[in-house]
Amino acid sequence: MKKLIVGLFFAVASLGLSAASLTLVGDGGNDATIGSASGEVVTAGVSNFTGTISDSFTLTTDEDTSISGGLSFLPAGIADDTTVTFSGTDGQNVVMAGSVPMTFSFMMLAAHTYTVLVDIVTNVQAYDYDLRIVATPIPAAIWLFGSMILGFFGLRSRVAK
Questions:
Q1: Is residue 8 domain-resident?
Q2: Where in the sequence is the domain holding 67, given as residue range(s)?
């Protein structure tokens, strides 16, 4: 009976879990505009731009969370040099360079501020870029798996007696 109650507790607790809330703020000199500034998903981008972009954003979170995201570019594959850099006051420095689209993921800590730099060099006359960052929630299955493991150990100790 106790195991059933513990299992139900973990099941109910897992339903209330949600991802952390992110906040994205652009610097005043950015070419990109913020699409969605706060929530579980934050976005920024630019349309019909020509030349080189060097945009800087400040990213914060209300709790420790894993994030994932990506940078997409239209028309695809025409950027000569693209770099996305995440640097945080916690000492993390993640640099991604190469072809677009690019994806990334890393761990953010709540007590720190992160700077996101997007540098694009191209000779294309008109292009769009979209930056999308998503807070990744802990899946409910992890909590249910944990209660299952506890149940197996409890069953094992009962059989041993």
A1: no
A2: 20-160
The enclosing domain of 25 has a CATH number of: 2.60.120
Looking only at the bridges linking them, the beta strands covering 102-108 and 65-74 are: antiparallel
Q: How many domains, in total, are found in the chain?
A: 1
pTM of the predicted model as reported, rounded to 2 decimal places: 0.69
Distance, in Å, from the CA atom of 78 to the CA atom of 59, rounded to the nearest integer, reads 27
Q: Note the helical H segments in 78-161.
A: 140-160
- Cα separation, 76 vs 73, in Å, equals 5
Spatial separation of the C-alpha atoms in residues 145 and 147, rounded to whole Å: 6
Q: Is the residue at 7 inside a domain?
A: no
Q: Which two tokens stand for residue 73?
A: 């570019």
Residue 15 lies in a domain: no
Partners of 114 in beta bridges: 59, 88
Give per-residue pLDDT as tens, 30-76: 888 888 888 888 888 888 887 788 889 999 888 888 888 888 877 76
